[in-house]
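Newbie here. three chains, one complex. Structure please?
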Amino acid sequence: MQPALKWYKNVAVVGLTLASLTLTGCAASAGKDGSGRAESRNLSCTNKIVNPDVEQVSVWAWYPEFESVVDEYNKNNDDVQICWNNAGVGADEYTKLNTALAAGSGAADVVMLEAAMLPSYTVQDSLVDLTPFGAADIKKNFSPGAWADVSTTEGVFAAPVDGGPMGMLYRSDIFKQYNVAVPTTWAEFADSAQQLKDNGYPGFITNFPTNGRAYIQALFSQAGAVPYTVDPDDPSRIGIDLESPEVLQVLNYWNDLIERGLVSHNDRNTSDDNARMLDGTYASYIAPAWGPGYLAGLADPGAVTEWRAVPLPQWDANKPVQVNWGGSSFAVTNQAPNPALSAKVAMGIFGSEATWKIGIEKATLFPLWSPMLESDYFRDLDYAFFGGQQINEDVFIDAAASYEGFTNLPFLSLIYDTTTEGLYAMAEGTQTPEETVTSLQKTFVDYAENQGFTVN
Amino acid sequence: MSLTKLRKPQNDDVTAAALLAPRSQRRSVITRRGRIGWAFVAPFGVTFIALLVIPLLYAFWLSLNTNTLAKGNQFTWFHNYGQAFTDPLFLEGARFVIVFSLILIPFQMLISLITALIIDELANKVARISRLLIFIPYAVPVVIGAIMWGFLYSPSFGPMGEIFGFFGLNAPNLLSADGIFWGLVNIVTWQWVGYYMIIIFSALQGLDPSLFEAARIDGASKLQIALRIKIPLVAPALVLILVFALIGTLQFFTEPQILRSLAGGAITSGFTPNLYAFNLAFVYRDFNYASTISFALGIVVFIGSYIFLSASRKKSGL
Amino acid sequence: MTSTTPRTIPQRTRSSRPNKSHSQGAGDKRSIGRNVVLIGLSIYFLLPMWWLVVASTKSNRGLFSGTAGPLWFDQDFNLVDNFLELFSQSNGIYWQWLGNSLLYAAVGGGGATVLAVLAGYGFAKYAFRGRTVAFALLLGSVMVPVTALVLPTFVLFSAVGLNNTIWAVILPSLLTPFGVYLMRVYAQDAIPDELLDAARIDGAGEARIFFTVALPLLKPAVATVLLLSLVSTWNNYFLPLAVLSDPKLFPITVGLGQWLQLSAASGAGQQLWNLIVTGALVSIIPLIIAFISLQRYWQAGLSLGSVKS
């Protein structure tokens, strides 16, 4: 796309200058940052810059209450200032980032990315390797699993921020009222589901969101499936294995519960589902570590509820497997004029106790940064929403510790979209789990080959 | 219509006047006028070239290239077009918008035509107020309309249950795979019928009353007058609406895009060709193929409107 | 009927007179039926608006678990709180969005109208070389899908540094091929060539002729084109979504869309549903007022395109 840009730029400059001169009689005042990366960039920030005389690094992130985090960082740094904007949540920000990357300019220097999305950007060399900027120094602050999610054999492409180790949140009142034991294995989970129904509970033990995206992949992974692999020596050689017994085991399990009417299959992240989360339609919520914050955000502020947290049900109680729904990270884009400074910001925003305390208390993030993760403060934190339960100690810290990482392919958005469509068809009963995995496998392999990958 | 016939001679008069002038003078007048004509068109023309023609050429150039994730960029001529017209997702999306148009547009036009006829005929207070009320949804931005209907369709806190319950029916889930088609038909109808109704209404208002006064005296019923006289006379307005609706529907995008976050399983990534192009470009980062899909859609729209226009011209004798 | 302006005058008198005498005289039963049909339709079209009004008086809690149902007011009337919250949320950024939308609509829509009037008049009244081709090109462009233009436009703006400025939204909305088409069709009939020739013989310059002779005759069409381009600018969603990253520049559609995302996305933990609903209500009020108060200007104009299609 680059050569096209060049001739195009010239024509565009002429055409547009002409247009703006004729039409508005006003020479565009913002035409500075096209080619020359001047020191004073015309950045517009949501936050207030504390220290206006030093260089700024632009950051896109969608964490709640992030402005206080930025203010805290800017107060404590006199060589760099963060200029922060919320460019949209998840897919919205990616849309903007993709557009800017294709256009060759317009992206922020540092962007928040879900760790799972990183391969989708490294494949086109859109991110800066942080190794020359001291990534090795921060490696000790993260668990091997968290580190594996942001690095490849070619380098370290983001600084890990928060994680999504999984547990099960459940309504203690509902389980008590219908006299059902809280399950610890998936077999027990299915039994509990049946008992709840038999004992007259009108809702569902949980919801199986067909648009669960990373959630679904985590479930596959917990059963021991390795659906995607990338050859460490040649990233264009990949493996896709959706037809494995483990994937099928997971889909058969949930499909059976749906068919028996024990589990619903509503889209998550909708206002409808938010309402059902609280009104007792679901007796449990298989959740990542940031799930509690999500739930608490739905309820009235300061509400004390009957929600409690326990570890994720296991396939084999003797060999527990912990998985990660997904967390996020800060990456430096290849459009950053000052990669060193940008890398400093990416690695430093959540590199202090002060910023982490804001992140934990106001945004309910789950820190991957071990000084905070392993602190007494975090372990002993009690959550009013969970009736004062210390959910980190009880569930999530252990879950995070044994997470080993998960390989994603560079076309994750397509995988997520197609999986959503396939699972929806399965849950609606229009195709069997076997047909679902067969068609997913075929779609992914075809797409990968079309994109020039060698599959298996 | 009569209008065209009336106008023609006027233009010819000018030409005739110019013809009478001496040769050299005539030419200079024409070239001078021509230059002034261009001057009037120029500001628009520059915008048009800078913001439409150049971007389109660039997009076309993109569509002739193939950029794969693993292998990089290659110039591949019309390879992408071959792929597009055999791509099940594109064909499925194209089939959807065509079926959607075939059901939605006649439905919409029928409602707006009937409403306009009644309002024109009644001309009382009810008519005046309802004319306004029916038109109001047009003032609601499409995005906000879609957000609103998304709330209304919500099975747990929307009013669908109440409304259908009132008639003793079970509310359909308009966000499910089976219901989404009608859910979208409803949103588009709600948003645009008022606008179409006003177009037909003002065309009706422009008719010469003596045309149907005679028929009335002959004992023709209101229905007959409407069917035999009024509707044929407002045919050009109907054609205009059809063109609007056709172009709009084939490019269907915003509503499914907004509702997609509520009905992720039912609205697939290739639900409509435009949605597919959007997803290809901005989600899967395949701008080349996305441009191809846009142009392929453009070809379909162009052929569709051309066939339609030439057919309707022949029929209505315009 | 050589022009639309004169014909609107006689029709007014006709539509009220003969009809009334007829329907009243007969005590027409079917007219009751027709009234009922209209009232039924009005209810259908009004229902979502009614829901919006009711919903905007509710808190988040009331929206999701209110007792009175979605179509009636809750016990606790939260409209004022919601309204005030629009001022406090992110330092009142909502009002900035609303202001931006007004600015984009005024400058973009206004500019588009100016360009369309000039071009439409030029096309209608001057026979210049390339006119037919240019006009055909213009008609064809009505069919260009928006998505096809967003990426290349983004690249273009990026090359000249216009992305993330107000011009990235305003410049593209200056383009209304359909407005030019309407203007041309209207100007052709509304401005008799004899009038222009007479003015020329009197020695008036072309610019003067345009402003003093042509423009007054074009008024209804100008109102219509202005209205249409205001609406389409106000509706603008996709392009601003792509070209703007600074929330302070968002138009209301993109802003509310972002709130929707924020509220729905898990992990983001912000529940702004009450603000989305109240914000949506507040944002459509200006347009509804504009439509109602300008009714007599646009109504006649909307059927313009149909005189020759």
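Moderator note: The longest strand of chain B covers residues 65-68. Confidence is low (pLDDT under 50) at residues 1-20 of chain B. Thread marked as resolved.
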